Amino acid sequence: MAKAAARTKAAAASPSVERRPALAGRALSAPGVKVEILPPAERISLRAPQASLAALSKALGVTLPVKPKTSATKDGRTALWLGPDEWLIIDETGKDPLADCAKVTALHSAVGISHRNVAISVTGPVAAATVNSGCPQDLSLEAFPVGAASRTILGKSEAVLLRTAADAFRVECWRSFSDYVFTLLSEAASDAAN
Amino acid sequence: MLLIRCPYCEEERPELEFRNAGEAHIARSANIDAESDDDFEKFFFIRANPKGVIYERWRHIHGCARFFNAVRDTVTDKFVMTYKAGEPKPAKLPGASK
Ligand SMILES: [Zn+2]
């Protein structure tokens, strides 16, 4: 275990090994909406029963939401309700939520998925119409308010949506789908304003 | 598009997020070794396939990912009701006369 950790450290420091995030820097602007790839973030997939939530919330520094389609954010770390015992944790400050969960003895499963996902931001007055081009959910502010989060479908890909502001969405998709999702949203952005 | 109420998400969601998972309330024998070939065939292969009200398992696969049960009319494709996995078959259906 220690040996493996040392090797990872050495590899990370080596100039010949460089992590290239998918689609880094890609962005598209259309009238009323901007679609851009967000920087890499730390992510975990968390599964836990009701009895473990208090301990996990304390360790993560953010209260795990228990209401469907909601999220909670504190100090750059967001917990998204995905299912009755499933959360997606996203940390944008570089701190590792996996290490925080490792200290918790209560029953849970935490899996690091930082580089499995790519995040795309869709912002602007027609952001909802842009996402709706591939997503069948009601994204009106009444049905999907600021802070709402949901796993859903986006065209032919599965995605997780988080509404960060009235006119802003964070779209999380799997890395291998990111080219498709970015292209879909880019095409939609050009149409949405019309 | 059909809207299906997920009992775990507690709201109606578009059908594209769901997948059918076959007939509901089919219990596997606790002593499968003792099952006769005929009984096993009935359990494993034979389904009611009714014209009308059917009890099915569905999965909110692109949502909360949970399995649940649904009562659907195979003639109209109308979802009569949905309920959580593990809950008993509803004795009375909403809107039913008996
Ligand atoms: Zn659901």
Query: Distance N terminus to C terminus of chain B?
Result: 30 Å
Instruction: Please tell me the CATH architecture of the largest domain in chain A by its name.
Output: 2-Layer Sandwich
How many E-type strands of chain B? 6
CATH superfamily of the largest domain in chain A: Probable tRNA modification gtpase trme, domain 1
**How many discrete domains of chain A?**
2
Unreliable stretches of chain B (pLDDT < 50, length at least 5) are none
Task: Walk me through the structure.
The complex is a heterodimer of chains A (194) and B (98). Chain A has helices at 2-13, 53-60, 97-102, 127-132, 178-192, and strands at residues 27-30, 33-37, 42-47, 71-74, 77-83, 86-91, 109-112, 117-123, 149-154, 157-165, 168-174. Chain A has 194 residues and is an alpha+beta fold. Chain B is mainly beta and 98 residues long. Chain B has one domain (3-84): Folate-binding superfamily (Folate-binding fold, 2-Layer Sandwich). Chain B has one helix spanning 37-44; strands at residues 3-6, 11-14, 19-23, 53-59, 67-73, 79-84. In chain B, strand 4 and strand 5 (67-73) form a beta hairpin. Chain B is globular and about 45 Å long. The model of chain B has no long low-confidence stretch (mean pLDDT 94). Classes of the chains: A alpha+beta (194), B mainly beta (98). The structure holds zinc ion.
Topology:
The complex is a heterodimer of chains A (194) and B (98).
Chain A: H1 2-13, E1 27-30, E2 33-37, E3 42-47, H2 53-60, E4 71-74, E5 77-83, E6 86-91, H3 97-102, E7 109-112, E8 117-123, H4 127-132, E9 149-154, E10 157-165, E11 168-174, H5 178-192
Antiparallel strand pairs in A: 1-2, 2-8, 3-6, 3-7, 4-5, 5-6, 8-11, 9-10, 10-11
Chain B: E1 3-6, E2 11-14, E3 19-23, H1 37-44, E4 53-59, E5 67-73, E6 79-84
Antiparallel strand pairs in B: 1-2, 3-4, 4-5, 5-6
Bound molecules: zinc ion.
The site of zinc ion (ZN) has 7 residues of chain B, from loops.
